[in-house]
Amino acid sequence: MTVTVRIKRLAHGADLPLPAYETDGAAGLDLRAAIATPMILAPGGRALVPTGLVFELPGGHEGQVRPRSGLAAKHGVTVLNTPGTIDSDYRGEVKVILINLGAEPFAIESGSRIAQLVVAPVTRAMLVEADALSDSARGEGGFGSTGR
Ligand SMILES: O=c1ccn([C@H]2C[C@H](O)[C@@H](COP(=O)(O)OP(=O)(O)OP(=O)(O)O)O2)c(=O)[nH]1
Ligand SMILES: [Mg+2]
């Protein structure tokens, strides 16, 4: 499924390529760091990394900011709030909250692909308050109630 997404590049990201799907079947658009000078993420450190991008997602859709598995596997660098939620009515710059869970400092250069954005449909709930809810086989069991 394809939807049209309007996108604006901010001045500090104007020289970077638009996010792109790296392969025909890729689910995520890689997001790049739009930074004037390299950032160093110390072990255990986190940073709000600008992308220089503003999206206009179509109604009924969200953007999910997800980690790149390569950064996680090789460096322990991931998205702290994964999946970050980009609302369709958000018109601010998309930023990525990265955290370094690895043992070494991690350098982020301008243009580094730091995360990926998956555009996904959203189902919104119409809440109906009720005094009693239907029975189910699971009932109140959770948090490991079915065993290992
Ligand atoms: O990783 C993220 C997550 C969110 N956002 C932007 C887009 C999103 O639409 C907005 C609000 O995100 P969220 O609802 O997760 O944050 P909040 O702490 O609840 O802030 P708000 O009170 O603005 O909703 O912040 C990002 O740029 N990156
Ligand atoms: Mg919110």
From TrEMBL:
Record keywords: Hydrolase, Magnesium, Metal-binding, Nucleotide metabolism
Pathway: Pyrimidine metabolism; dUMP biosynthesis; dUMP from dCTP (dUTP route): step 2/2
A Pfam family the protein falls into: dUTPase
UniProt-listed GO biological process terms: dUMP biosynthetic process; dUTP catabolic process
Cofactor field: Mg(2+)
Domain dUTPase-like: 17-147
Record keyword Magnesium present: yes
Superkingdom of origin organism: Bacteria
GO function term, MF aspect, one: dUTP diphosphatase activity
Binding positions (substrate): R68, S69, G70, N81, T85, I86, D87
Keyword Membrane: no
EC number, as in UniProt: 3.6.1.23
Alphabetized InterPro entries for the sequence: dUTPase, dUTPase-like, dUTPase-like_sf, dUTPase_trimeric
NCBIfam families: dut, PRK00601.1
Family per similarity comment: Belongs to the dUTPase family.
Role played: This enzyme is involved in nucleotide metabolism: it produces dUMP, the immediate precursor of thymidine nucleotides and it decreases the intracellular concentration of dUTP so that uracil cannot be incorporated into DNA.
Protein name, UniProt field: Deoxyuridine 5'-triphosphate nucleotidohydrolase
Organism this protein belongs to: Microbaculum marinisediminis
Gene it is expressed from: dut
